[in-house]
From TrEMBL:
Keywords: Cytoplasm, Gluconeogenesis, Glycolysis, Isomerase. GO terms for molecular function: triose-phosphate isomerase activity. PANTHER family: TRIOSEPHOSPHATE ISOMERASE. It is found in: Cytoplasm. It is an enzyme of class 5 (isomerase). It comes from Trichlorobacter ammonificans. The keyword Cytoplasm applies. CDD domains: TIM (cd00311). Substrate binds at residues 9-11, 173, 213, 234-235. Belongs to the triosephosphate isomerase family. Its EC number is 5.3.1.1. This is Triosephosphate isomerase. It comes from the Bacteria. It catalyses: D-glyceraldehyde 3-phosphate = dihydroxyacetone phosphate.
Length: 253
């Protein structure tokens, strides 16, 4: 059985006091939840605040990005080891917004994944197609390229530090959500590709999350699919009640 993961990507929201307040509201709402890994990803400046606020809870803290070198003349970058030192256990790599706005490529994603794994972080590796790519019928080709390049040189041992997040770009922040069947189809294809890249056991063990306008209203249907192992949540993770409802998906009707 793969343990479900519910991760909240806070993007460019929440200052220090707001970060502390949100975690103080969230913690009692998810206390006692078992069998679900809970992760939040605040902005860089709030990481230490989040780690301190989450102390004594089951909530883990992720960064939203990292660099592929540990030190050097790289103004503005943050190394995986520094994230680990700040108390992070996870890091998001390859998010569509990093690809769209900041020139992230499959090759740079690959370098970051390997550096993050080497630093002892667990990676949430994002893949997904744009609306134009889906309408052109190239969804599987795009995702296969992202996976093959992103995982180049990533060993089976490293894979144990990896979670894949499938996020159809056309469903992020738009209110649109892939149907349960659309999401499952892509998740199943990802798992099949992992069998060819690694082996059946590795593919069966790896968690694949869905990201794309996840809400309390649609989480249960998504989680009912065979190959969907959790969610990477955007806007709904910015409020304690909605994020807690997603974390508690097993209790909702």
């Amino acid at each position: 059985m793969r343990t479900p993961v519910i991760a909240g990507n806070w993007k460019l929201f929440k200052n220090l006091s707001e970060t502390r307040e949100l975690l103080q509201e969230l913690a009692p709402r998810v206390a006692g939840v078992s069998g679900v890994e809970i992760i939040v990803a605040p902005v860089f400046t709030a990481l230490t605040t989040a780690v301190q606020a989450a102390m004594g809870t089951t909530i883990r803290v992720a960064a939203q990005d990292c660099f592929w070198e540990e030190e050097g003349a790289f103004t503005g970058e943050v190394a995986p080891g520094l994230l680990k030192d700040a108390g992070c256990s996870h890091v998001i790599i390859g998010h569509s917004e990093r690809r769209q706005y900041f020139g992230e490529t499959d090759a740079t994603v690959n370098r970051k994944i390997k550096a993050a794994c080497a630093a002892g972080l667990t990676v949430l590796f994002c893949v997904g197609e744009t609306l134009a790519e889906r309408e052109a019928g190239t969804t599987f080709t795009v995702i296969e390229t992202q996976l093959r390049t992103g995982l180049a040189g990533v060993t089976a041992a490293d894979l144990q530090r990896l979670i894949i997040a499938y996020e159809p770009v056309w469903a992020i922040g738009t209110g649109k959500t892939a149907s349960n069947e659309q999401a499952q189809e892509v998740h199943a294809r990802i798992r099949t590709l992992l069998v060819s890249l690694y082996d059946q056991a590795a593919a069966d063990a790896l968690r694949i999350l869905y990201g794309g306008s996840v809400k309390p209203e649609n989480i249960r249907g998504l989680m009912g699919q065979q190959d969907i192992d959790g969610a990477l949540v955007g806007g709904a993770s910015l409020k304690a009640d909605s994020f807690a409802a997603i974390v508690r998906f097993q209790e909702t009707e």
